[in-house]
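Instructor's aside before we start: the two examples that follow are unrelated to each other. I chose them only because their records fit on one page, so don't look for a connection. First example below.
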Amino acid sequence: MINLIKHVDIVVSHEDCWTSHMPFTAYTINLEVYPHKNYLRSRILIDSMENKVISNLMKTHRSVIKVMKVDRFKGGTYVDFLNKYKGSIAGVLYDKEVLILGNLIEGKDEKWSFATSSKNLREILTEIESLGKVKRVETTDFNPILYPNLTEWEKKVLTVSYSYGYLDYPRRATADELAKLLGISKVTFLYHLRNAQRKLIAFSIKNILA
């Protein structure tokens, strides 16, 4: 039997997680995992400027260990926090060593995209089903050529730039503001953004426009 790599999109209602109480759309821009300490560090962008509501929700939910930072920003809120590793969907995915492609919270549901081998898929879905209600699963054959090879920092910078309107005309945020949000210099921010744009343009010319 051929062991294919699958691209999986899954939607989960996770009742024991802070995500099931989040009334706004949130985008995960970074995950750092510490399984031996039973926590993971998440940095998210939320499509709401109600930072007091968001801060209270995050600080009072039992799945959240500590809120490190809450920043109100143009058009939204940035949250840096620690939450429990065990019992999280992120924990399951990291334990199974999948390639995480994206995550967002929308309508109080968690939406995950990841790539994994077909032989591991059933086991992964079973573990996720033990944590919450799986509402939808879509699988397709994973083709790496469909994904330009961006670094983690390039992904972060590109996500923040898009979410906060830096790529809009006129711009809704400045490079200085976004660099401060990410804790890097303006020069570093622009370096990663331009690298990401260059890779995306080259990828498009080679694979889409050719």
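Example two begins here.
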Amino acid sequence: MPQYWWVNHKQTVRQEIGGGYLWSPKQENNGARSQFYENMRIANPGDVVLSFANTWIRHVGVVEAHCVTAPKPGHFGASGAYWAQDGWWLPIRWTPLSQPVRPRDLADELAPLLPRKHSPFNAIRGTGNQKAYLARVERAVIETILGRAGLALEAVQAGENRSFEQLVEALDDEAERAITQDLTIAETERLEQVKARRGQGRFRANVSVMEKACRITGISNPDLLTASHIKPWRSCTTGTERLDGNNGLMLVPHIDRLFDRGLISFQDDGRILVSPLLAFADVQRLGLTSALEESVGLFTSGQAVYLKYHREFVFLREDRPEARVRFKAP
């Protein structure tokens, strides 16, 4: 069943609607946890989102894929200048409302429908609540707004989403542009950092020194292995991270895909974590049931730094329920 959301994004509405996404920091500036930011990880493909900015709801969107860790978009400019650089990026397929809705005009109808805790909107003042970003709301809130706009919820949910590959490619393209335009980096170094995006060049050489085979399948033929970043290439903050052999694993393509998508991860001692979003039937079809019951071997302290990042920010935990250590059939 889809979930329903309301986002307050006055500062960045132009960029986020135009770019087809939502972006938030991972925590408050003081390091405190924010449920509004955590909700970025809880949102699922097919969920419906209302866009609220400057007292109006002018767009409604559908979540296209689970959020990924990504740098703050460069085109934010001065907007959110105080936010951290590392955050959550949630792809949204936005639809403009032919009849925009001002929620304050529906305050009496909305008031009993809004959540008591973590509400995005103050029905008394008719304004968005301070610090509220992505907030969960009831289906009735969505239907009330869309009803005033003359748009059926089913019409919003219909439509074709962009593929996950298209979405991530766009993020990586932006990170690559930032590198190629950074003239403080030597040209040869810029080239190596760009090659690392595809698991090539010095990065692959550095990883292959440490990892001789795929950790799960045991395949060691270099022609069948991909040098995969543990901390995603786009999220690396320095060239050192992008090229560090500790920040990579040699994986066969289907394992690389599972790892990049956050459907599996690893404990430092080699135990495999499987996301609750990976169906047992798919594990069976991939022939991985027995392999996922075994340890893949210890990781080094250098690798452990990057694996911690992967477990916390890439792995689809679904706190979504707790992830399973190794894999057990239901």
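The two ends are 21 Å apart (CA to CA).
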